């Protein structure tokens, strides 16, 4: 299993943002995306996850193995923490092991309605989803937002030990240091030229 | 010691524990005697025939339907002003009872309407205003059900109850203006003898007393249940945090 | 206050909704009824006043749930609550904005739509005046209902359940005005009542609304 | 699929909405109409079939906007789109859930409410059967409309604009069935048409819905 | 002008969370709240801002001088950046100076619809609000979420130079280091005892 990206260019709202991105991740490898606000990290991740079509270039990755996690992580306030996870598990045809609750320190929040969680607790629940659906290629957009140091550590450990160590792949956009030794990719040099092709208005220029 | 001390849940529980069975028995006695008296030991009305006997269920339930809402209004005000949890829970407990009373009035009325007016339902002002009252009850209960945090729910439902009461009166007036109906006027007034003869009258009074007592009993019971539920909830939260 | 009003109107327009939608919904309901009821002219003209009023009532209802929901979800409501703007004022403004986007265009257009249900010519004027006096009450009552249910996602249906019974007086007096107008009877009483309900509603509900909002913001 | 269905039903119940609300709304509309139209029994029984159908249509409409809106706002929709669950299936399930929470209780209760409008006794059975065949179409069409407007905040009103015209055939045939039933005429043709529309809708709209969702998720 | 908090206790969802909080901030002083996820920072800030009543204790601060900013910063997607700020300005009876746009690096986003901003750009807009409404006492809940290092620096400078230096007061809950030398308050020791009084269920125990 591999993730190969060649000459990828992507746009947001019809505006080309980044172009010429190339990288190749093998099993157990992670890549950290860096770049100023608004350079196009989220856009890139959404493209990789197949939520929007690329402007140009190729994305080769095994079908049905990629998962996307962003600021909005589909948590239902009226469902308990456990119910939320169980839903995603059954959608992906997996099941929720108790280990997940420990991995994300949700054990004693298990029966709480997700709506009553604090910002960080909600975030942990959103991340726990990744431990449940058993996807091998993760695209994470600022996964540690509003997590305290301890929880960030928890998450990093999860990534290292339970994902990458098991032959998983991860592409992570973040502004803080996650403390996992992974190559970093700064998007600055890939910023699309103002007259880059592919914009949806191009035909009119 | 002030009357308000009974608004403390624990005090309320211990205070009502002995009262509840008494009221319940009294209610049953009154109901049975009143209804039996009314059904079997009163002559048939010369116009309405035996159908008049439904009167003994219809009127009391109708009255209780109205009074239940009134009680909810008072309880809501107490909650808003003095923040006594019991009164909020009492209002919550009274609503379903009120709904049932309204339904009984509507159904018995409809059943009565068939022989009397030749139709199950007519848009008679009083019938209609009861239908509206029913809607208000529905909304009130639905709002309670929709909000998880009990205090928020209590506050919002109280506000709704107060505003709703005003509009209920308005609607009653509007409906009367909209259609002058075939339903008889209130006979619960002092000059009762004029509309209803004493023979029908005394058993009716007993039946009404029975319904009042029944209402009290049910509300007490349900309030106690609500209090227990809150207690369980409180203990669970504490257990979780300990 | 003005700022809030302008913002809400601007949002209503920008969000592709704006003045047209309530109107269009009104139109559609008015069109649907003949499909359901059948085309007989005399029946239609008999029920026209009622249908027109019920339709405008539903049109007002349908745009209610967004009055506060959006501001609540994106936190704007909490910020307004901590701003110098009194919540009562905000509630009033919200109702006003809602009226301008739904009630007002409806009032202006309703007479034009009356002929679809061949409403009696005499009734047009009364339809207009009763709507003009009545729809503000609908908006204010609706704002109150929206404030009660703002905390709940998918509160839409619950809100309509709470709000519609409160609409009854306005509806009855409004429709009664038009019906009487159509039959050439005197319409002062119902008209005065409509106006009275509206006045009372605007006198008291802003406070109830603000109270509900405060509770929901806790 | 089952999981999604169960979740949606659970959410509907938890959110205090659930099965009761659509019903209550239906009841209210049925009650409001006489207030507008006036209490005369014979008129009411003439328009009863139409009103009952229009009312159930509106009840279905009012709970539509939440079908996808919530899942879209909290990102669940994007996650479902990237999950093994086919979007077509999801669309179908969503429609099913909506029908179970509104259409089904409505169908069961409508006959009981018929007597409020002095519906002719003969018509009850036809009301029931036509609703049972027709309401699923309302849910599916509504789901399609919801998918089209999911991107827009306060899309509620716009959606009803898109959806209501699509409801017309079902409404016409459904109401026609009941009207004929009330007058003792043969009702096979309209009934077959209602069933046909429903069948066709379920055959094609799930795909259109999924397409609309994909576009909105881009 | 001063912010004095004495024996403050506050609860969320009827559950007492923190008790016995005491501090006093004079003009130009800032306080950074620390604590694990879910300890009650947001709750405390909401209480200080007057959005929810305290369980016990006193909050003395000048009327109508406090502003609250949280994860949800009331940005309207259909309004442009400028319109968003102008709205809050006119609500507070102030006006938007051009300097604000520079301070938060929003100059060339001025006419963009807020809905088309990236996470960090949105955040900057939310923070720019604080520069517009001219309130002297700020309660900030994780203000730098999803900001890149550069923007964090921008924000810290704004706080120091344009708020505190002008006699403002700020209470800030954050998990990352803002790089402003302000005293820190760790909420851990103030965690309410599990049987602490004041819970809304108390009467039932
Ligand atoms: C659904 C239908 C009906 C409803 C909702 C209804 C409602 C009520 C109500 C609210 C009262 C209590 C009035 C009061 O004293 O404050 C009442 C009393 C009464 N109803 Fe009905 N009614 C209905 C049908 C009928 C019918 C069909 C009859 C038979 C002609 C009837 C005869 C009476 C009588 C005789 C009283 C006692 C007089 C009085 O206290 O008003 N009702 N009904
Ligand atoms: N409605 C509620 N019912 C019960 N507990 C609640 C409710 N809302 C929040 N809580 C709990 O209150 C605690 C405090 O929440 P709060 O948001 O203040 O924490 P926080 O310090 O802001 O955490 P974070 O750093 O993650 O934002 C959390 O443990 C949360 O689980
Ligand atoms: N609908 C749109 N129309 C035009 N431009 C847009 C639209 N949506 C986003 N953009 C722009 O695309 C750029 C990339 O946005 P994106 O969210 O990918 O940035 P990002 O790297 O994730 O930033 P952040 O670190 O703040 O999350 C931003 O500059 C944003 O302004
Ligand atoms: Mg981003
Ligand atoms: Mg927080």
SSE blueprint and pairings:
The complex is a heteropentamer, with two copies of chain A (205 residues), one copy of chain B (242 residues) and two copies of chain C (218 residues).
Chain A: E1 2-12, E2 15-26, E3 30-34, H1 41-48, E4 56-61, E5 66-69, H2 81-91, H3 98-103, H4 119-133, E6 137-141, H5 149-163, E7 169-173, E8 184-186
Parallel strand pairs in A: 3-7, 3-8, 5-6, 6-7
Antiparallel strand pairs in A: 1-2, 1-4
Helix pairs in contact in A: 2-4, 4-5
Chain B: H1 9-40, H2 55-82, H3 85-117, H4 125-146, H5 150-178, H6 192-195, H7 198-241
Chain C: H1 2-14, H2 18-37, H3 41-62, H4 66-73, H5 76-81, H6 87-114, H7 123-148, H8 156-183, H9 188-217
Helix pairs in contact in C: 1-6, 2-3, 2-6, 3-6, 3-7, 3-8, 6-7, 6-9, 7-8, 7-9, 8-9
Structure in words:
- The complex is a heteropentamer, with two copies of chain A (205 residues), one copy of chain B (242 residues) and two copies of chain C (218 residues).
- Chain A has 205 residues and is α/β, with parallel strands linked by helices.
- Chain A contains five helices and eight strands.
- Helices cover 27% and strands 25% of the residues of chain A.
- By secondary structure, chain B is an all-alpha fold.
- Helices cover 79% and strands 0% of the residues of chain B.
- In chain B, helix 3 runs antiparallel to helix 4 and helix 4 packs antiparallel against helix 5.
- Chain B is globular, with a radius of gyration of 20 Å.
- Chain B starts with 8 loop residues before the first helix and ends with a helix.
- With 218 residues, chain C is mainly alpha-helical.
- Chain C has nine helices and no strands.
- In chain C, helix 1 packs across helix 6, helix 2 crosses helix 6 and helix 8 packs antiparallel against helix 9.
- Chains in contact: A-D, A-E, B-C, B-D, B-E, C-D, C-E.
- The structure holds protoporphyrin IX containing FE, adenosine-5'-triphosphate (2 copies) and magnesium ion (2 copies).
- The site of one magnesium ion has 3 residues of chain E, from helix 1.
- One adenosine-5'-triphosphate sits at the interface of chains A and E.
